[in-house]
Structures are given as structure tokens and as C-alpha cells.
Amino acid sequence: MNNPFLKDFGLRIKSLRLQKGWSQEQLGQIAELDRTYISGIERGLRNVSLINLERLAIALNVEPAELLNFSEH
Q: What is the three-state SS of the chain?
């Protein structure tokens, strides 16, 4: 899958994760998602469900809408 929206979303997740100094495994553990799933998201290969978007937002301590704020990329 080569979708620019998914790639931008993945870069946003990666940016927020790195701001916290976390590995993909750490984010996965906190969000209760597999590390390989996190990797797929960050590479723009995964189309995230709303439930998983909420899990990521809670784990990263941001509002869900903040995860979609990647217009600056």
C-alpha cells in the first residue's frame, strides 16, 4: 500500500513516539498493540482503526485529533 495519508500519519506517530524517547516496543506495550503493528503504522502500511487510534492517543497522552495533525509535513 502506498498511500500518502497513511505515510504522513505514520510519520506523525513516529515523531510523537521519539519525542517521548520510546522504542516501538515501549509504545506497543503502553498502547497494548504489537511492536510489529506499530512498525507497520510508522511505515504507512497499516490503516489504523478508530479503536487503535484511541489507544495510541492515550498512550502518547494526546487528544486523538492531535494524531491527525500532520499538515506541517
A: CCCHHHHHHHHHHHHHHHHCCCCHHHHHHHHCCCHHHHHHHHCCCCCCCHHHHHHHHHHHCCCHHHHCCCCCC
C-alpha cell at 46: 497499516
Q: Where in the chain are the domains?
A: 4-67
Taking domain 4-67, whether its CATH number is 1.10.260.40 is answered by yes
What span, in angstroms and rounded, lies between the C-alpha atoms of 13 and 7? Answer: 10
Instruction: Return d(Cα 73, Cα 50) in angstroms, integer.
Output: 22
Query: Do the beta carbons of residue 41 and residue 34 sit within 8 Å?
Result: no
pLDDT digits (tens, 9 = 90+) for 4-61: 999 999 999 999 999 999 999 999 999 999 999 999 999 999 999 999 999 999 999 9
